[in-house]
């Protein structure tokens, strides 16, 4: 009993230390957002909150079109996430549960695209967008991102193990077509995988900086990450204002993570009970 208590105490201590280490960068971000630039550079560093948060936020809002950029990022991220969930889930369950000519080689080609660095496709992608006349528009952010190889691979792996063939056969016997089986049988089972994929996609699109910076040439179309980058001065950077803007950009992701994590855990528990 004593040995078991010691093991439990050590485990909980390690978990607490790991939690504190993982949350400290966000805590430090909040602290710096409440300080002036001079206080950020002070030594020893000030580890408690200051009084400049609202002043720094006001300067961010007055310097850039924060709410316009926020709305642009939200629109692009939500649209891309919904399209990814739809198309990747369709392709994933097709690879997992249906046979068709060339299935094996198509899946190998799909995996091969995941191994190529995304930076290699920047120039070809820009040329294609220019040919279509989409440079400076949201189409150039949404259309290329509405399907990704990782999402198809993730849904395929999850669907292969979680969707019983008997359920699909029962749907066919009842006269259901592909989309009816997909919507009424597959999607409810895929909810945990879709929750993760949705959060993963939204965070990736929300934080994307390089591609929007290259493709958007209209300040009114800037996403939040591109708009925040304009806070950096050529010679001098007001880090208190930059960090306050970064904090505002991170808060939606934290809210999303808290919501999705609860949903993800509840879906996993529900699936375990059903099985």
TrEMBL record:
Record has Cell membrane as a keyword: yes
Signal peptide: none
CDD domains: TM_PBP2
Domain of life: Bacteria
Membrane topology: Multi-pass membrane protein
Protein's cellular compartments: Cell membrane
Pfam families: BPD_transp_1 (PF00528)
Domain ABC transmembrane type-1: residue ranges: 70-260
Transmembrane segments: 9-29, 74-93, 105-128, 134-155, 181-206, 239-260
InterPro entries to which the protein is assigned, alphabetical: MetI-like (IPR000515), MetI-like_sf (IPR035906)
Family: Belongs to the binding-protein-dependent transport system permease family.
PANTHER family reported in the protein's UniProt record: ABC TRANSPORTER PERMEASE PROTEIN MG189-RELATED (PTHR43744:SF12), ABC TRANSPORTER PERMEASE PROTEIN MG189-RELATED-RELATED (PTHR43744)
Name assigned to this protein: Carbohydrate ABC transporter permease
Lineage: Bacteria, Bacillati, Bacillota, Bacilli, Bacillales
